[in-house]
Write a structure and sequence with these properties.
Number of domains: 1
Largest sheet: 5 strands, mixed
Helix content: 25-40%
Strand order of the largest sheet: 1-2-3-5-4
Distance between the termini: 36 Å
Number of strands: 9
Radius of gyration: 18 Å
CATH class: Alpha Beta
Structural class: alpha+beta
Shape: globular
Length: 239
C-alpha cells in the first residue's frame, strides 16, 4: 500500500490554473497534490549576446523555492550569495525541456524566460515545474502571435514530466515526498506529447535495479505523461 493510498499507476490530483499573474505574458499555477509551483513566462526582445544577429530565439528558465516551501524554513539563496548545485541543475533541466519542443528559428530573436517558483514542496517539484512551465510558455507564445510579433506558434510538440520509483519493491507513479524519501530507486522522465524522450534521470538509492524494473518505470512514465498532456491541452483550451 502506498502511503497516499493511491494505486501504483495513479497520479496525484493534478491542477493547472492559467493566467494567475496579471503582468506575465504567460502564467500557470501547477499543483501535483501538495506540490505547488507558480510558473510565469516573460517575453524579452533581447536574446543572449552569443545569439545576437543569428536569427534564432531562446527559451530559458529559473527555479527557486520559497523559504517556507518545506516543513523547515530555508534561507533564500539570494541571502546566501549563490545558488545551490541542485537549483542550477533543475533550472537547466527545465530550460532544456522547453527548448526541446520550441522551434527557436521560427521564434526569431526573442527570448522567453520561464520562472518556476515553488510555493509548497511535497516531492516532484522539477516535474511539476516542467509541466506547468510548458503551459506558461504556450500562453506567452500565443501573446506574441496575438500582437503579431510572430506569425504562428513556434512549437513542434508539447512536453511534460513525471517521477516514478521503486517503493517497497513496487514500481509506482508520481512520487510524493513520503515515497521519494524512502524509495529504493527513483527516476524523472521528460517526455513529449508524441512520446519522444527529452531526458531521463534514474538513480538507485539503495541497491541496483534491473532492466526489467527500469522498463516498468518507463511504462508508468509514458502513461503518466500522456495523462498530463491531456490535462495540459484542457488547461490551454485545445482540442
Amino acid at each position: 500500500m502506498r502511503p497516499s493510498g493511491r494505486a501504483f499507476d495513479a497520479l496525484r490530483a493534478i491542477n493547472l490554473e492559467t493566467d494567475v499573474n496579471k503582468y506575465a505574458e504567460g502564467s500557470c499555477l501547477v499543483k501535483f497534490g501538495d506540490t505547488h509551483v507558480l510558473c510565469t513566462a516573460s517575453v524579452d526582445d533581447r536574446v543572449p549576446s552569443w545569439l545576437k544577429n543569428g536569427g534564432k530565439g531562446w527559451v530559458t528558465a529559473e527555479y527557486g523555492m520559497l523559504p517556507r516551501a518545506t516543513d523547515q524554513r530555508t534561507d533564500r539563496e539570494a541571502a546566501r550569495g549563490k545558488q545551490t548545485g541542485r537549483t542550477q541543475e533543475i533550472q537547466r533541466l527545465i530550460g532544456r525541456s522547453l527548448r526541446a519542443v520550441t522551434d527557436l528559428k521560427a521564434l526569431g530573436e526573442i527570448q522567453v524566460k520561464v520562472d518556476c517558483d515553488v510555493l509548497q514542496a511535497d516531492g516532484g517539484t522539477r516535474t511539476a515545474a516542467i509541466t506547468g512551465g510548458y503551459v506558461a510558455l504556450v500562453l506567452a507564445l500565443r501573446h506574441l502571435v496575438q500582437i503579431r510579433k510572430i506569425k504562428a506558434l513556434p512549437l513542434i510538440d508539447s512536453v511534460a514530466a513525471i517521477s516514478c520509483g521503486l517503493h517497497q519493491g513496487q514500481a509506482v507513479l508520481d512520487l510524493d515526498y513520503a515515497e521519494d524519501s524512502s524509495a529504493q530507486a527513483d527516476a524523472n522522465f521528460v517526455i513529449t506529447g508524441k512520446g519522444g524522450l527529452v531526458e531521463v534521470q534514474a538513480t538507485a538509492e539503495q541497491t541496483p535495479f534491473t532492466r526489467a524494473e527500469f522498463e516498468a518505470l518507463m511504462a508508468l512514465a509514458e502513461k503518466g505523461t500522456a495523462e498530463l498532456a491531456a490535462i495540459q491541452k484542457a488547461a490551454l483550451g485545445e482540442d
